[in-house]
Specification:
mainly alpha; Farnesyl Diphosphate Synthase
Length: 294
């Protein structure tokens, strides 16, 4: 691959996964603004911190998956920089440390504003980013990646974004966070379905490996449907108006992606579906935000 170092590092950051960091911050900020509690410096810091943790996690995954043998020449997904020899393991490890260190610097302001709860959330988020594929008991290798993604890219991210602005928390905000969390699970599911063979050989026991490809396909579909239907709870409880049902448009937009997931295993098609699902996550966040505001 003949590309500049800048391009290589951009690819290593896995930009198609970054909506998982952006979407919950958008939802949390819109909910805070609707309550008259928006604090824009904190919102920007929350977004920057979320992106840095996501990028640091991606760098750490590239490094640890290479060490553990999950990324090999037989892998059919987007090229991993360490496995392909385009970035050295030492450089990738340093990049992960730098990304997490920058997240800590941004987080210092958020801790100053939000106190110990934000300190705890930040430290656990960074530790989980490392332990997702690293350490003696990596979460992704034990089939816990889906739960990690649901929690940290859902209620934790949305609730944390809301809290650093409002300096209080609302159970409805945490419930709303399940929407982005569920679509983020769908992103992970596509990734795990595509890598099911190489993950199995590396003893990376994702849910797709443990329970099979059919389970992963249904997990993808149900995660999207549950995320789309969740806002109807707010409508039924009188917490939002009819416009909140705009999220029901997401499964309609997802029909081509769902068809590809349920078709025969095709790595290239699943790569496209991974990118599409990231776009669906942003669409969910935007539609929820519009519906919440109206």
């Amino acid at each position: 691959m003949n590309a500049s170092p800048v391009v290589l590092w951009l690819l290593a950051a896995r930009p198609k996964t970054l909506p998982a960091a952006l979407a919950p911050v958008l939802v949390g900020t819109v909910m805070a603004a609707s309550a008259g509690l928006a604090h824009w410096p904190a919102a920007v810091a929350a977004l920057l911190g979320a992106l840095l943790i996501q990028v640091g996690t991606n760098f750490a995954n590239d490094y640890f998956d290479f060490l553990k043998g999950a990324d090999t020449a037989a892998r059919v997904g987007p090229r991993r920089m360490v496995q392909s020899g385009l970035i050295s393991p030492a450089a990738m490890r340093r990049a992960a440390v730098i990304a997490f260190a920058l997240a800590v610097l941004v987080g210092a302001y958020l801790v100053w504003r939000g106190g110990l709860p934000i300190l705890a959330v930040g430290l656990v988020s960074i530790a989980s980013g490392v332990l997702y594929t690293g350490g003696p008991w990596p979460l992704a290798y034990k089939g816990l990646g889906d739960l990690f993604v649901l929690v940290f890219f859902g209620p934790v991210a949305v609730g944390g974004t809301y809290y650093v602005q409002a300096l209080t928390i609302d159970g409805w905000v945490l419930l709303a966070g399940l929407g982005p969390g569920l679509v983020s699970v769908a992103i992970l599911t596509v990734n795990n379905l595509r890598d099911i063979d190489t993950d199995a050989r590396a003893d990376k026991r994702t849910l797709a490996v443990r329970l099979g490809p059919d389970f992963a396909r249904w997990e993808y579909l149900l995660a999207l449907l549950a995320a789309a239907a969740l806002p109807l709870v707010f409508l039924a409880a009188g917490r939002a108006g009819p416009a909140i049902a705009l999220t029901l448009l997401v499964p309609l937009a997802a029909i081509p992606a769902i068809r590809r997931v349920f078709a025969a295993h095709d790595a290239l098609a699943l790569n496209r579906t991974l990118a599409t699902t990231g776009q669906l996550l942003l669409l969910h966040a935007v539609l929820f935000s519009i519906g919440w505001t109206l």
